[in-house]
User: What shape does this take?
Amino acid sequence: MLGWLKRAPRTQSLDTPGIDEVLTRSRRLQEAGDVDGAAALVDTVLAGHPRHARALTRLGTLRFIQGRLDDAQSLYGAALELEPANADLHFNLALVHGGRGDAGRSIASYRTALALKPDFHEAHFNLATVLHEIDELEPALASYEAAERCTPGRREVLIGMGLARLELDQLDPAIACFDRILAKDPDYPEAHLYKAMAQLKRGEYAEGWDNYDHRFDTEEIRGARRDYPGPRWLGEDLHGRTILLIAEQGFGDTIQFIRFAPLLVERGARVIVEAPAPLATLLRSMVGIEIVIAGAALPACDFHSYLMSLPRFLSRSLGAIPAAIPYLQPTPAKVARWRERLAGDPGFKVGLVWAGDPHKEHPSGYRADRRRSSSLEQLARFGEVAGVSWYSVQKGAAAAQAHAADVPFVLVDTGPELHDFDDTAALLQSLDLVVTVDTAVAHLAGALGRPVWVMLRYDCCWRWLKDRNDSPWYPTARLFRQPHRFDWAAVAADVVRDLAPLAVAQTTSVR
Assistant: This one.
């Protein structure tokens, strides 16, 4: 989300006769795309002048562009020995450290550059993005504000500042940042999208859904767009027509927004849903819709729509959310098998998911998952509740925590038996309660009408709204929010407090 904002390495002015001409030619070759040729020219300078600071800097920048970070660091280091008070060189070295993923050294180099040149806009801004990426939000915000003071009104600074405020749950100041951008550039899609996230979190659905539709034009998403049969549906009459609905983003998003498909069936449409294979069996439980697995050939259609665009035309207020629960049903035979299997287990049966998909290939998703995911160690207090049988519904790499030597409480690991969402839904139907962080399982349990407690990060996703412990999307859900960023201990304490009497009541009723 943030890396694309960073400023590039800086090069110094050139003023030495002869050498100046060669370095200028090198720059022109670089601008023409011949980085290797540009570097070869600088090598000729350094062959005769090995301690020429500007040539060392120039070659360092070219090596950085080539991805040769070791060489770039050595060249910048050699130049700094000659010009230790050169702020631009410290800035460039910070970029090299950042390219290696060494946030600590990158931050230190940016701060050195700023100590030498306090009004260094690019250094303030890049320092802000590094701090932002490692979730040091208050210092990041201070650096964004310093960059804004140096050069007011820069779009990338206002975007970063607005995102930091979103993650600090400061919705009004975040919207103000995005509005400043839109006042100058009304069509800038990122500002519309991030403003939408704040508006939707505040429950302002009419304008929020309109702004959210700009997501397809953002840099992060537009490259993934595909062509689909028919024009996009914009609310036209669907009676006697066919519409293709496209699952987008994560599994949880599909589970949450598939609820709108029956509304289109009621309007007389033939509804076809393109869905990922792990959801196909479960989604086929919905009456009146047809499922095509993603990647298969698509039929001719009169219209198409992404699932998450449907509320723009069907649910423009909180009161208009269709919440006829349950709207999904797992295969009955699978439910019967799980109930038979768990019948002999004692106590209150609770399914647990403590981590999401890290989305390592998706920078913004990776950062969000780092905030939404907990660990068994952080939830160790769950083991204090007597009379509970815990079942791990965790998938992915985090599932291995259930088998660690120091696992804080006993968990039955069901993960290896859950091959798709129909399997998972059948298990959830057999449990008394599901406790989960903000993952697809939260949406699945809600769509099934199962009691579900959702443990939310401080800056929770817009779909859970703000300052509520319930959800108009899922009547059987309760929300447990972090009072402070990364404070899973407080969430665990709240869950333990409310779970204990349920376990006692179950034990009493069995007796």
Q: What stands out?
A: The mean pLDDT is 92. The longest strand covers residues 270-275. DSSP finds 22 helices and ten strands in the chain.
